[in-house]
Amino acid sequence: MAGQESLDPDRSMWDFIAVELHRQRRLRGVSGAQLARIIGRDRSIVSRIESGKIPMQLDHAEIIDREWDLDRLFTRLVSFAKDRKEGDWRIGTLAEQEARATRIRMWEIGLVSGLLQTPEYARAAFAVGLVSDLDRAVETRLSRQAAVFERERPPEVSVILNWVVLEQPVGSPEIMRAQLAKLLEVGELPHVSVRVLPKEAGAHVGYDGSLKLLTVDARDMAYSDTPHGAGLVTDPKDVLDFQVRYDRIGVLAAPTGPSRAMIQDAMEKYR
């Protein structure tokens, strides 16, 4: 089937589901159109699932298991795929997806995004955590940055920073000045937007935590950045929740011009 040659069932749970669905369908001599009628959808949905363009939905998995007497095979696979977190064999790591993304949107509540950090800022941020090898952690972060920004065709990047990011010192005043200068420099790139959410915005949905949205192969996924639940999210319904949160934060953020002025003003405080 067209598109299946690009799937990697050894690394991706969703790719495995797509390949197995195609195998089970061919095994039974069922056409894509016939399977579409079974799940109550049109033929294009089956094609997109089998080519890995969209994930199988749980209700479709339940119908297929029942109709083909598969003892909850696809129901279990879809449930496992939805529950797995960053670094598993479902979708790879966050860094891998960043390196492939054509669009990256980020909301940062307390720190400069890792993709925009200077080496000194990154080291200072890592130093207050539980990182045992600072050199390796900083090197890994810089490698992630290079994979995104040093590509021949870098992605469109939109960043919204909470005002706290500018006010909260991380490292020395010199480190902070250099970091803010880098934000101004990166913000001048034609494919990068850096905006600031001002203090005057008050309470908002962004206080639920930092988030990242990535567009990879024309499919959106999200990254939830919490200490005990960080992970990539691919289910369309869950991703939509992240998109709504990001859009609501974006409405409150200052435009790029005033945001640059806010960053420049903050730099003066670190002399």
Describe the structure.
The chain is an alpha/beta fold and 271 residues long. The protein folds into two domains: 4-83, 434 Repressor (Amino-terminal Domain) (Orthogonal Bundle); 94-268, 2-Layer Sandwich (Endonuclease, Chain A). 50% of the residues lie in helices and 13% in strands. It contains twelve helices and six strands. The protein has helices at residues 13-27, 32-39, 43-50, 58-68, 73-83, 94-100, 119-127, 134-149, 163-167, 173-187, 236-252, 256-268, and strands at residues 103-108, 156-162, 192-197, 211-216, 219-224, 231-233. Strands 3-2-1-4-5-6 form a six-stranded mixed sheet, with helices on both faces. Helix 4 runs antiparallel to helix 5 (73-83). The longest helix is centred in the last third of the chain and has 17 residues, at 236-252. The N and C termini lie far apart (62 Å). The relative contact order is 0.12. The model is unreliable at 85-91 (pLDDT under 50). Residues 93-264 form the DUF5753 domain. InterPro entries: Cro/C1-type_HTH, DUF5753, Lambda_DNA-bd_dom_sf.
Describe the structure in brief.
The protein has 271 residues and is an alpha/beta fold. It is built from 12 helices and 6 strands.
